[in-house]
């Protein structure tokens, strides 16, 4: 705490912001909650992301990226060249891609299709 003429200056962090008006008045500023209509949360949620993606499409995309990741890691040679994985691990990923990629294709085709409206 520092004393300067007739005012005190606190050098500590508090939970309330202090408000000075022309150096004469010191008060505490508190935020008040706005009154919102009851259905404003539903309209906000609808307007945030209007594009809807169904769960089967999202699951197919995730499985496709997984399969492409195995192909990229096993066959590109970039990961072992920069030192992320060793040559032995890259060869193992090439072998695993023969099992994982057909399994990913099976999963993509087996996910239920969404009904047409």
UniProtKB/TrEMBL annotation:
Keywords: Membrane, Transmembrane, Transmembrane helix. The keyword 4Fe-4S does not apply. It comes from the Eukaryota. Residues 53-114 form the DUF7887 domain. Pfam families: DUF7887 (PF25397). InterPro entries: DUF7887 (IPR057209). The chain crosses the membrane at residues 95-112. PANTHER family: DNA-DIRECTED RNA POLYMERASE SUBUNIT BETA. This is DUF7887 domain-containing protein. It comes from Carya illinoinensis (Pecan).
């Amino acid at each position: 705490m520092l004393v300067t003429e007739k005012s005190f200056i606190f050098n500590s962090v508090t939970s309330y912001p202090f408000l000075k008006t022309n150096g004469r008045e010191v008060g505490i500023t508190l935020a008040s909650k706005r009154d919102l209509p009851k259905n404003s949360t539903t309209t906000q949620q609808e307007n945030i992301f209007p594009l809807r993606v169904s769960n089967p499409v999202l699951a197919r995309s995730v499985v496709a990226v997984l399969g492409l990741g195995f192909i990229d890691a096993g066959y590109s040679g970039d990961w072992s060249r920069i030192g992320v994985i060793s040559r032995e691990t890259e060869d193992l990923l090439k072998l695993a891609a023969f099992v994982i990629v057909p399994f990913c294709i099976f999963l993509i085709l087996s996910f239920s299709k969404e009904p047409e409206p």
